[in-house]
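Q: Entry one of two.
A:
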Amino acid sequence: MSGGRTDAGIDDLEALARAALALWGVTDHPPELIARRENVVFRVRTATGSPAVLRIHRLGYHDDATLRSELEWMAMLRTGGLDVPEPIPASDGALLLHVHTSALPDLRQVDMLSWLDGRPLGRSGAPLALDRGALQTVFFDLGAAASRLHTLADGWTRPPGFSRPAWDLDGLVGPDPFWGRFWKLDELTGDQRRLIERARDAAREDLAVYAASGGSYGLIHADLVRENVLVTGDGVQLIDFDDAGFGWRMFEIATMLCKNRHEPDYDVIERAVLDGYRRHRTLQDADFAALPLFMLLRCLTYLGWAQTRRTAEAAHPRTAAFVTDACEIAGAYLRDRPRS
């Protein structure tokens, strides 16, 4: 998920991108800034003139081993037939390089990926501009792509030193979750904080039960929201593996659904995602029963994301919406929870 802007100026970032491009043998194609969020992303040209993406990674978010593992996994998925970006090695064959300039002296992790030409499925917070038939097709394709991703991951022998974060019990509802202590968010009122803490405790208990039942767990994309799904005439393309790691496959499904809860045709979206997923993999009764749990967990993580991306002056602009959604889902979950 995107956020966490850098303090560097655009001119300095472009100079850093130019310095990086030289390591890919590119000196005659200026970089074009297209995103400045978790990572700073430029549209560039390779030495052969093909369009590509140059990523300057957020300082301190992932170490080198974690980023190389992301690139190795993406390369495997592309070889396996998924439409995902392909890592492009630099002139020396490395997939990940460190670059700095006099204006930005801290070494920055930089990589290059092939350009995908699909159009984004949509933008979070804006209504989807698709009729029911198109929704059914696109979200079926998305569910099917996610299930293929999981199947490819399960059949892959990971290379030595492979490292990605874990969306496991502690990563979601432990004392120090991967995306931050969501119950500490400053924007929560006293009543909201107590609600979120109750939901956290219930979710931890229920997730432990689900995990013990053998729910499918392994590598997941972990951020298949609209902006990271590109639509083509042949299906969908998956981008932005920045948050990919180990997690439950139902968490993946919940991520595809969570931001679409308020769509008027949500019933079509949910059914299509689940039907598409079952094209390649089986879902058990326990998985269907756990969907409300994972919808809750997904919403709670967004509170943590907002908590860790505050500035000294202000919260992230989407925080109010995250709080509203999380409290709504938390209240419903605690009300309907069979174990309560």
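Q: Entry two of two.
A:
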Amino acid sequence: MPRFSTTQVQRYYDRQTTAFLAFGQGGRVGAIHRAVWGPGTGDRRQAFHYVEDQIAAFIRRLPQTVESAHVVDLGCGVGASLCYLAQQLPIRGTGITLSPVQVALAARRITESGVSPRVACLEGDYCDLPADLGPADLAYAIESFLHCPDPVRFFAQCSRLVRPGGYLVICDDVRRPTDEPAAERTIEQFCTGWNINALIQRNELRALAAAAGFVHESTLDLSPYLEIHRARDRAVNVFLALFGWLPLARTPVGHLVGGSALQTCLERGWIGYEMALFQRVRQTQDFSRTTSPGSHERHGDDA
């Protein structure tokens, strides 16, 4: 069974999204995901769009016969990534999020961005996608896969969604091998604070993708380009040292506990932040109506 039901994840984002936008450093551009100071970034706005710029490059790799690529954001938050991509490229975009709060905010952003004829955000579950959603030329999940209650079903749905020859991009945290005793405790803090279900290792992610008909093309380690232990995180660490983390982990400030723990995990190398590119290359059994042990109710969204 997953640690966090999809209903819990939905409530997490219903409760926190407004605060993420109001107080998070990416709020001005609608980014709930992290800033990545990769090669060529010159300011914070570019850092928040770095991952999307890599996805735009993958879209440009699609065959020229694809006139208006259909791009699906699996865990789309408030739709900012799709709006940004639609302003750069002539795509059709569909976002999926559990959170009705995010759907409402996304609708407003899509209209204000001038891409409403081509972009839409739907309330739904990326482990139970609408039958008429596909095919997609490219699907991506930015910091949303970790909430997934059933990774097998997630990839089965992606296999049904993404056309043969199309791409799947997953940009998220991955677990790295370690035998340090402190690692388990800190990882537990991260998972509890952020409602995490699917923190897995790189090889596990690739095996799941391969079983669903995707071939791994590349993985980009973005860990060196993240901001580690900002002033806010240091302040949270002091507070947790005084009062402990467990009483706070499942409260409205639990995301601060999880974020602080994640910073430590990234710094120590217990967790990495990676972007993996997969290509759908063959037909597979349609798993869209099946469930694996520990199946879910609904899905997780953009962190």
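A: Comment on entry two: Confidence is low (pLDDT under 50) at residues 284-303. The longest strand covers residues 162-175.
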